[in-house]
Amino acid sequence: AASDVYKRQLLALDKKTGVLTMPAFNPVLNKALLTIFSASLLFGCSAFDDDDDDDDPVTTSMSGKVADGYLAGAKVCLDLNSNKVCDEGEPSTTSTDGGEFSLDGVTQAQLDSAPLLVEIIVGETIDEDNPSTPITKKYTLTAPAGYAFISPLTTMVQSEIEESGLSPEDAEGSVPVSYTHLRAHETGRNL
Description:
By secondary structure, the chain is an alpha+beta fold. It has 6 helices and 11 strands.
């Protein structure tokens, strides 16, 4: 019987419409509703906090050079899926004079794991060793993850990594050209 009285205090049947309604003033109900409403607001604010930067990865940029003779007008990307194609959605840019490029909006994890890829754009890419003639043959160059210089020699290093499963350091040692010469070329030093 007490539960029936409590139910009647919480809900009332509108005899005209047949709809259950809550009385306008019920201290027990009002306190319970206020507690539930306050708790849901607190939960809602913490569960859907858009200021939480943990969900957004920190991005950075990286700069480098591409050379087979410095290449201007070539597409440079991080080959995130290692399919040797600069796919839509992969961070990419176009090299400029001196073979320079800058990839923006990349994460450190991407830079540490994805090889660099250069696609020659036929009729547009210029080898600065022969600046008056655009390149007429399509080819690609690659470099291991973490490199900032892409050339035929880094392409050989990346091939060794892919074919033999070598570490970048071991692959560098297996390339026929002295890696010291490759590093000297990267820094502009002549040996």
